């Protein structure tokens, strides 16, 4: 056996890639600060500053505060996730100082002697010194066929060991390894695809395209009317500030970051921030039985003396570390007394292993269906399968063969897998929410059905053996059944594709290398506690707990984010729609835009900033509706259109510009409060207190406007009060009527 000394390890290059795929703290600060919206705000602020009316620059402080809060929340979430990520790191066995020790992948050094087993993702490049394995290089090549590797064959980092074990001499680590060189061009931070973010980005693009021509036309209109420079700049700036939904995109990213932070407290590592949103839209959950609804820790229930005698020798020649091998090796007293000609390791494709023994023939150990012995095993073992127990069969051929044909049955082993807690309650909840569940396994379908029923799954569920399903029936079988046994890795991937083709949003959980293809294909993927490094590397979310109920917590976080963002987005866009529509009307009909930047800052703070912050983080477990943008746009158009009509009519009946400003800011605040009422239902004590506080703040804002901003000559005439009252009544009536129609 080859070993590295302590001195050699200290001098060697470590397996650390300097190019990080996650953003640094500085990157987060920069990305939250130097945004397109902040850039537009800065330009407007520079123009406002030239008027020396510095009170109108308060909107800049709002942007600074929003950016600070957003950066703080993301950095806090980042650190929490990084601390959690340390717990999710995979360990590997290496030979050092005359013993075999476990180290993290980043502590592996060049020249290392590395042990690889079933389920490992190869973390470095190297060549095999001893042993033989099958590897899946689909992460590198896109091809799902397994490739056999033996002594002197080269292994590439990023490959997954699907069977066998070997000792590897490490030749390249860190940035020199194949996987890091291969991924060099994609090392920059990328956001996870998001329907929410993409829809909001479309709105922002439209707004940005409209702002410049509207600004130019407003300036030209003001100049044609002979208005002063200060008047033109302040009214134009007021319109442009109104168009910008400042803080909306920031609020989305902060909401997702906070969700990731909250989930980290439950030992759930979110590796892709925007997948939290996808979770809320999931309507089909695909579970791999082992490691998901069961712990994956097997125990021997029954074994005959004859089988035990053979397996003591048989298993001693395999270094497999899957749950079944570990359970049997712990139960048996292993010994090596055979002269072995050839070994065939277990693979998820074949469902068996074999050993050719000199003078005896070939022993096979695996699933009876794949050994063609289904009709030979006693009925007793068939009943064991139906009870949810795993049954493995030992058989023998007198010839030296690799394919199980004409085998003599020796006996079977029965193993059990412990069911996780809270599975029954979680299954029942998903059923009540119309979330379909598909249980997928490489085990016998009857055994999987038995385990599922024990775990609280629907006792009327339909189970099927996927090894007997023809290609022509594949799609129908997937859609009509609930439990699938003897599923191959390529079938798992194809199953996800079928469900997605049926317009399902699919979440896939798994723990083994045979789940990798399906995990990559799913809309969102989970790696279970104790999952292989291969499964962890491709999953969006990694569980560091065995608590099955965290699936519920994750789904609820996704729903909270989407439903609350849907509410507050309409608050932001109400102001945007009003500003765009009224700016256009101002250009056409020579109307003065009614709000200066400081007035819009007051309105935005009371009717958007404060309520959106509190409403975004409240609990919301309602199912996500598919018409996200329709709902947001409808609410925003109702609010924006109502305010446009009221302000337009006020312009017609009120000629005094100072009194016009007071009435318009009062209308805007009233309209905003009514919008908050619309999006806050159903009310609770918490929301009522918030609404009362905002109402008081709105009254104070009007007082500030009267005595400081507009400095109007009081009192109002009876005519002014009548017009103001009529316009407020119009706003209330419009919301009442439109609210009924929208419902």
Automatic annotation (TrEMBL):
Pfam families, A to Z: E1-E2_ATPase, Hydrolase
Q: Classify the main location.
A: membrane
Record localization: Membrane
Q: Mark the transmembrane ranges.
A: 28-48, 54-72, 203-220, 232-258, 568-591, 597-615, 636-654, 660-677, 689-709, 721-738
Matching InterPro entries, A to Z? ATPase_P-typ_cyto_dom_N, ATPase_P-typ_P_site, ATPase_P-typ_TM_dom_sf, ATPase_P-typ_transduc_dom_A_sf, ATPase_P-type_domA, HAD-like_sf, HAD_sf, P_typ_ATPase
Which GO MF terms does the UniProt record name? Answer: ATP binding; ATP hydrolysis activity
Which SUPFAM superfamilies has this protein been placed in? Calcium ATPase, transduction domain A, Calcium ATPase, transmembrane domain M, HAD-like
PANTHER family attached to this UniProt entry: CALCIUM-TRANSPORTING ATPASE
Q: What is this protein called?
A: ATPase
Say which species the protein is native to: Floricoccus tropicus
């Amino acid at each position: 056996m080859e070993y590295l000394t302590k001195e050699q390890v200290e001098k060697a290059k470590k397996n650390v890639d300097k190019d990080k795929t996650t953003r640094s703290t500085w990157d987060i600060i920069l990305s939250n600060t130097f945004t397109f919206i902040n850039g537009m705000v800065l330009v407007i602020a520079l123009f406002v500053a030239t008027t020396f009316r510095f009170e109108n620059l308060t909107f800049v402080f709002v942007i600074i505060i929003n950016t600070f809060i957003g950066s703080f929340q993301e950095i806090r979430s980042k650190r929490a996730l990084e601390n959690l990520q340390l717990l999710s790191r995979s360990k590997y066995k290496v030979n050092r100082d005359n013993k075999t020790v476990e180290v993290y992948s980043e502590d592996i050094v060049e020249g290392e002697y590395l042990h690889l087993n079933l389920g490992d993702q190869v973390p470095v490049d190297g060549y095999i010194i001893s042993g033989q394995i099958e590897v899946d290089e689909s992460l590198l090549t896109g091809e799902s066929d397994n490739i056999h590797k033996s002594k002197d064959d080269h292994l590439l980092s990023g490959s997954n060991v699907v069977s066998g074990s070997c000792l590897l001499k490490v030749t390249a680590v860190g940035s020199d390894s194949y996987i890091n060189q291969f991924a060099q061009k994609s090392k920059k931070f990328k956001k996870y695809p998001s329907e929410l973010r993409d829809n909001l980005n479309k709105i922002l693009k439209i707004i940005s395209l409209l702002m410049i021509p509207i600004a130019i036309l407003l300036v030209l209109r003001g100049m044609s009317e002979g208005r002063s420079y200060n008047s033109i700049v302040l009214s134009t700036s007021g319109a442009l500030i109104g168009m910008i939904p400042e803080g909306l995109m920031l609020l989305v990213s902060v909401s997702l970051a906070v969700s990731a932070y909250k989930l980290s407290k439950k030992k759930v590592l979110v590796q892709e921030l925007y997948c939290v949103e996808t979770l809320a839209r999931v309507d089909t959950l695909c579970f791999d039985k082992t490691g998901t609804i069961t712990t994956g820790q097997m125990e021997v229930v029954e074994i005959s003396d004859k089988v035990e005698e053979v397996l003591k020798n048989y298993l001693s020649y395999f270094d497999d570390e899957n749950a079944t091998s570990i359970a049997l090796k712990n139960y048996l007293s292993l010994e090596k007394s055979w002269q072995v000609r050839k070994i065939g390791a277990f693979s998820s494709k074949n469902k068996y292993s074999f050993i050719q023994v000199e003078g005896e023939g070939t022993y096979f150990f695996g699933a009876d269906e794949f050994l063609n012995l289904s009709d030979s095993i006693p009925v007793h073992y068939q009943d064991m399968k139906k009870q949810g127990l795993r049954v493995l069969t030992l058989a023998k051929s007198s010839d030296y063969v690799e394919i199980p044909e004409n085998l003599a049955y020796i006996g079977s082993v029965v193993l059990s897998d412990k069911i996780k807690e809270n599975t029954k309650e979680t299954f029942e909840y998903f059923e009540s929410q119309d979330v379909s569940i598909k249980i997928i396994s490489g085990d016998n379908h009857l055994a999987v059905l038995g385990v599922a029923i024990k775990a609280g799954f629907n006792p009327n569920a339909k189970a099927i053996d996927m090894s007997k399903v023809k290609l022509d029936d594949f799609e129908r079988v997937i859609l009509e059944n609930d439990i699938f046994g003897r599923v191959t890795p390529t079938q798992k991937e194809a199953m996800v594709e079928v469900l997605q083709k049926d317009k399902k949003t699919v979440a896939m959980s798994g723990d083994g290398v045979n789940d990798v293809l399906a995990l990559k294909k799913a809309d969102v993927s989970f790696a279970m506690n104790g999952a292989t490094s291969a499964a962890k590397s491709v999953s969006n979310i990694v569980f560091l707990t065995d608590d099955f109920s965290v699936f519920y917590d994750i789904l609820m976080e996704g729903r909270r984010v989407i439903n609350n963002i849907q509410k507050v987005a309409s608050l932001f866009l109400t102001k945007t729609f009003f500003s765009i529509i009224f700016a256009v009307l101002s250009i056409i009909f020579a109307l003065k835009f009614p709000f200066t930047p400081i007035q819009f800052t007051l309105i935005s703070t009371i009717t958007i900033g404060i309520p959106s912050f509190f409403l975004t983080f409240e609990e919301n477990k309602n199912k996500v509706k598919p018409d996200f943008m329709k709902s947001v746009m409808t609410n925003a158009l109702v609010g924006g259109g109502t305010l446009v009509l009221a302000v337009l009519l006020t312009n017609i009946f009120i000629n005094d510009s100072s009194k016009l400003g007071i009435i318009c800011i009062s209308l805007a605040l009233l309209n905003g409060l009514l919008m908050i009422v619309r999006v806050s239902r159903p009310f609770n004590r918490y929301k009522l207190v918030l609404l009362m506080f905002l109402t008081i703040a709105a009254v104070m804002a009007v007082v500030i406007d009267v005595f400081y901003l507009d400095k109007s000559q009081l009192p109002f005439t009876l005519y002014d009060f009548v017009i103001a009252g009529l316009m407020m009544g119009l706003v209330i009536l419009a919301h009442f009527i439109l609210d009924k129609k929208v419902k």
